[in-house]
Write a structure and sequence with these properties.
2 copies of one chain form a homodimer. By secondary structure, chain A is an alpha/beta fold. Helix content of chain A is about 45%, strand content about 15%. An 8-stranded mixed β-sheet of chain A has the order 3-2-1-4-5-6-7-8. Chain A is elongated, with a radius of gyration of 22 Å.
Chain lengths: ~250, ~250
């Protein structure tokens, strides 16, 4: 049986560090926190009764250092950590072999969007695990299993694909909602009216496939409504309308 | 005080007829149902203990006939209804003056996506009301108020704008989710992994504005990740990625 991870130190104090830190604190001793942002690091450290380290070298020795920083900072953070220290990071898009090799290097990637103000039920969030060796991978798997019933071993390529799909269903969807908000604003109407529809659009997909859930003028071939909508739009919102309508019609034609 | 609507007959047996019929049946006598589709009309009639009429002319006389059919069928349905009969329809995109005038003609438009398999909480769904005269408009308002605490008088133009915004946050969002599903499928990965993210993306917007909720490589200006993502995509999914990334960057530049 592999040794379990009994203590963690965390580098980072953003949304992911905040949520993982709080969640793991219920199960594993969080020794210390370091972040470039002293203020949010201090808040998180206080929240989970951990030591707030002023430098990476001041972190309390722990079974694992969990790096929750932006993708482009992982490399420089890693350089400051002794090579015999076990390390995992939380990024979807940084491949394991893109980083300098160490014996215990791994990934624990939750496919979710986090913001500090919102509690997220981690229990159904998928966590993707990868590591430089199987024993360490199993340790990270067991650790993620403390939080979620959806823990999956996945390669760096899998993870990058998931991250890209995540950009589409989160970043791009959110931006469409933004464009719709802008359009209503230009026409002196309240954004709030859209909230129940935005919610139900997502809830429907918890039990239906997007192909079956598709409705509207594009899939109905209602060219009259499409033409009228295009005449009501301008700039890139019009372009977005056009390309997405064409794409719907391409995929739904008999 | 205006007379209240005490009885309804419904034309249509699709998703909207199904949901409005069931919801109103808890408050108002639904006399009869007619639909071209005899099977679903019969189901709905049985569900809400209404008479299933074989022809429009066989509908039981009622204070209101509620038309819940496709936009392009409203005109021909209206022609078969005596001119002194009060009528309302549920469409977002058909303007009141685009239809032949009658004394009591109105609209009761719920901004929501309906499917028979899913219960929707109508209480927070906005209903938009318009009519050819104020007394009838108030009657429709009161009727909608039985189901929802968000009832709003709105012009045909307002309604068309809302419908267009609805296409963006529902039809187009759903299609982005479809494209993400397709991408994962091509890479032998499960669609299910995306469900918690899709849900949280929508839930976040119940309390945050889309502009503040925006995250990801485009808003961070992470050109390296964007380039890699583009190299992983093909065809119109790539085009969609490009145009939405440009649009995010345009709106979020300092």
């Amino acid at each position: 049986m592999s040794k379990t991870i009994g203590s963690i130190s965390i580098i980072g104090s953003g949304n992911v560090a905040h949520h993982l830190g709080k969640a793991f604190a219920g199960h594993i001793k969080i020794n210390s926190i370091y972040s470039r942002n002293k203020e949010t690091a201090n808040e998180l450290a206080e929240d989970i009764h951990a030591f707030h380290a002023n430098e990476i070298k001041d972190l309390i020795p722990s079974d694992l250092i969990l790096i929750c920083v932006n993708d482009d900072e992982i490399y420089s953070v890693l350089e400051q950590i002794p090579e015999n220290q076990s390390v995992a990071y939380s990024s979807g898009s940084v491949g394991l072999t893109e980083l300098p090799h160490r014996f215990d290097l791994g990934v624990i990637y939750p496919l979710q969007t986090f913001s500090k103000a919102r509690n997220v039920d981690l229990f159904e969030v998928p966590f993707f695990i990868e590591a430089t060796n199987e024993v360490f991978a199993q340790q990270l798997f067991d650790m993620a299993w403390l939080l979620s019933r959806k823990v999956i071993f996945a390669t760096s390529t899998d993870r990058k694909n998931l991250h890209l799909a995540g950009v589409m269903v989160n970043n791009f969807v959110n931006h469409l909602d933004f464009l719709a908000e802008q359009f209503l604003k230009q026409n002196s109407m309240e954004w709030d009216y859209l909230k129940p529809l935005i919610k139900e659009t997502a809830m429907k997909l918890q039990s239906k496939r997007p192909f079956e859930a598709q409705t509207g003028p594009a899939v109905r071939g209602d060219q009259k409504t499409i033409e009228r909508h295009l005449s009501m739009l301008q700039g890139e919102t019009k372009e977005v309308y056009q390309i997405l309508t064409e794409s719907i019609q391409k995929h739904h034609k008999a």
